[in-house]
Fold each of these.
Amino acid sequence: ATANIGVVGLAVMGSNLARNLASREGNTVAVFNRSPERTRTLLVDHPEAGFVSSESYDDFVASLAKPRTAIIMVQAGKGTDAVISELAARFEPGDIIVDGGNANFHDTIRRENDLKPTGIHFVGMGVSGGEEGALNGPSIMPGGTAASYETLGPILKTIAARAPEDGEPCVTHVGTDGAGHFVKMVHNGIEYADMQLIAEAYDLIRQGTGKTPAEIADIFTEWNTGELESYLIEITAEVLRQVDAETGKPLVDVILDQAGAKGTGAWTVQNALELGVPVSGIAEAVFARSLSSKPAQRAAAADLPGPAQQWQADDADAFIEEVRQALYSSKIIAYSQGFDEIIAGAEQFGWDVQKGEIAKIWRAGCIIRARFLNRIADAYAEDPSLVALVVAPYFRNAVVEGEPAWRKVVATAALAGIPTPAFSSSLAYYDGLRAPRLPAALIQGQRDFFGAHTYKRVDKDGVFHTLWSGDRTEIETEPSWH
Ligand code: NDP
């Protein structure tokens, strides 16, 4: 038993993570894959890693020093369950099984519960950054017990990405059981919203100014020097600058405009619905991908009426600056909503999640890495019980500054017939949140009318019902007595 850590599953993610682990001083890495050919290839390609390899679960488990720690990187779902049962049959109390795949956090909670009686620690661990991140430094979101993190934490710190600002490793113990996979899920949801907002900004500029993708790439490169600085803005410029070798056209013009999805965005929205958290920006981003992928409906609707004339901005430079401000304001809303979901999930499932720490571990290694995350960390450091990010002083000021442009851009888009679901819904959320009075009062009246669902009054305590089908007097009653 010579290895301090093992990796099961040596497809692209697992082999890169294993190589990353092996490249750090102090680690000896045991590797195992169901099909031995994959293991053999890895050993031939990377002799420098000094892997301890096995071709059976028995040998793999025997190669691990105690407490045994193994990271599973296999196909999420049945594959993960299969590997867990093989390891659990051979591990002892105090050993640690880590699932680094993209598991649904409900599965993670179930798996931990199943393993609890055995005394084996189970850690559901979100890993972000794709294959490149796995190799060079991902952002890592482990859940599981605090005790397991004592063993696992120091190892993860050696392989995690490091924040450019202060060199801190992008890993923290997120919370118990499914907390890590939950936070990874919300990370992906925020990623959907951020991408959709950037795509809407591009579309508005292209349609409103007639600039070419390469010219718009320069605009994004410029934006990347300011408060929007982020990996997603940076790669957007790269994608827009790319020319298709075959046709000589901008690549973005030859890519089919139907966006795919692997499901974590949808999970984020499903859970938000269950938790009652309005993540409207994320939901619109997921739905926008769904809409794009309905070619039959889009073809059938293509001749529905829109504005008679192609719209052009009067002052292109001014419009571009307005779009930038609308993008930043909408982005603040998307992140504010995402953190609301983390707060609600933590409450619901009993996790002690440090919001500021989450913002910090997203500063490098992951897809939504951005300068902006330092501001989020600062906001939660100043006020750990902040009720919404958007009301923190820095973000409030940013939105105050961007608000007029944001309104103008959304109104302009509506008049021009350019779809901006994420920009528009973010603004509607903002206006809903700040409204002194909402038409929710009328909804309560309607609910009481048809379902006797009762209502509260602004002027006195108690629960009331109007006898709608009788003489329409009001009676005081118990909540939802019907
Ligand atoms: P895949 O998701 O393609 O899974 C292939 C691996 O799973 C192979 O090693 C395969 O073994 C193994 N496997 C499948 N079923 C079983 C089983 N029943 N028993 C044992 N092993 C099994 O690999 P990836 O490297 O793409 O992804 C690994 C995990 O990481 C997934 O959960 C994925 O969702 C996640 N992921 C995360 C990303 C991120 O950015 N965080 C990006 C991509 C993936 P065999 O060779 O024998 O077939």
Amino acid sequence: MTEQSQGPALDNLLTESRTFPPSDEFAAAANAGPDMYAAADADREAFWATQAERLHWDTKWDQVLDWSDAPFAKWFVGGKLNVAYNCVDRHVESGHGEQVAIHWEGEPGDTRTITYNDLLAEVSKTANALTELGLQAGDRVAIYMPMVPEAIFSMLACARLGLTHSVVFGGFSAEALRSRIEDASAKLVITTDGQYRRGKPAALKPAVDEAVAQTPTIEHVLVVKRTDTEVEWTEGRDIWWSDLVDRQSDKHTAEAFDSEHPLYILYTSGTTGKPKGILHTSGGYLTQASYTHFNVFDLKPDSDVYWCTADIGWVTGHSYIVYGPLSNRVTQVVYEGTPNTPHEGRHWEIVQKYGVSIYYTAPTLIRTFMKWGKDIPAKYDLSSLRVLGSVGEPINPEAWIWYRENIGANQTPVVDTWWQTETGAIMISPLPGVTSAKPGSAQQALPGVSAKVVDDQGKEVPHGGGGYLVLDKPWPSMLRGIWGDNDRYRETYWSRFADQGFYFAGDGAKYDADGDIWLLGRVDDVMNVSGHRISTTEVESALVSHPTVAEAAVVGATDPTTGQGIVAFVILRGDAVDGGADAVKALRDHVAKEIGPIAKPRQVMVVPELPKTRSGKIMRRLLRDVAENRSIGDVTTLADSSVMDLISQGLNKGG
Ligand code: ATP
Ligand code: MG
């Protein structure tokens, strides 16, 4: 790609001047303090060693970091711990057994209240059951389940026994499950008979039967009854959870494992291509998950009620429902269903019911709430909320403001957290109580983490400049590789800036005049218009700042005169009228006014939906296929593939 060496790596177009300093009251009580940055800079390894002391270690490490075999890191070398013990037993032992760990809310409205005593009993029974099935430390277990408590018991039971789990999102197909079982040579699948989706039970086990028919490594299928759906049964292989787990002893002694013992494999969401099986290990991972959860969300274990709306099928569910929060003795809400079942106020009803104080979700959902309209959250008492978080995509400044105003009573800090499956835990984020927040910016690497924006040559760009986001120092929760494929690991993350030894995240970013970091989307998605390298995020944010627009996705399509032309797909807000020719012209002019004529879209399409991954990220590569009249690429991680037909039909009518 020769055009990459001309001009800046990424133009810097959109500016944002609103800032929101923390209140004195919040700052005074915050877990994080401004001095943490300097402390971490002075001695990074000592800083991480202090964070590792948050955990219980059976054997202390003798070296914080071994980077001699880079890019394969070892953290807390020689240390031994049990991850599940750290998330469950020690809270019971310290006298908090009666504290609620999980307020579980089923989609049909059934509920379960699980204390730390209950959690310990359930995890112990599950661990005893897996032992009875003959599983041994190092074996792999696939978990293919909806958001039921048994999914969390299963993950923790694996961690307890040193089994490596591979959670596969319950919305994925039999083929996705098959390929993930095969890749990891898993011996057991844990699943349910069915799952509730949008108010209706849907079978899940048939997909397992289909997958397992082709994966000879699987010895057993352990099935939780959730929907009472009729299922086929293979005697000897299939076992009901209620027959096996319920009769086990609720006592189990956790054994310590090496700090680098594999904890889980998890596949990336597939926005940029074939999903990668990311490997995470134990001590460093738990240290960073725990540290970030405590400081970024300002968790007060005795008074907060925390809710992360992710699915456990994604890394956010691993680090910010299971490992980070439980290691911090959280009380949290876990919700099984979709946000509009049975009505569009379901999340706010749950916040009101449990007095949720910390709420962590994705921009895609925030923009969906914008589309549904602010009258819906306004009907509920949301006054318990005190910290809001966002993850998964760049959050457009306008969506950030909407979130703070309509959900956070114009008061709460909003933390925009940048990280990846690969990073294991949050890397770049404001710290509530410390940082003056800027809508749309993840701002600064956390204390202990180092991130830079660099140009093609790997040289740091000046303030105001744009380029590639890299992580220039190893961090405790970093991936330890791609499962079974060391070459792909080096090639994917470490080859782009091999000379400098930087981890390349695949994302574009810029510094503003203060040196704060703004994420600008995937570098694969960057558009080149008449020699200007324009980020999708900036044009999308300009569109979302128009009062009629709820959500936007832009792509660069080949253009005979400009190289690429900007094609925008927009969803209008609930209260906006339909998008005729005038509306389209208004949107094109609005972008030109907000960020300059160079970014004016060639075409604006009003669409009912956008293609999103099952984790809610917009799949721009498919929109590029549409805009360039190609056949549509791999759609296996798409939430709803009929969306692509709707969009193509609209385009053919001439948008
Ligand atoms: P694949 O690597 O298979 O394409 P994926 O990158 O979508 O999948 P994840 O690891 O779930 O899978 O997503 C990480 C990516 O999400 C980041 O690289 C970044 O592009 C985006 N992201 C996450 N959080 C933020 C954020 N706060 N701001 C901007 N982008 C974010
Ligand atoms: Mg990725």
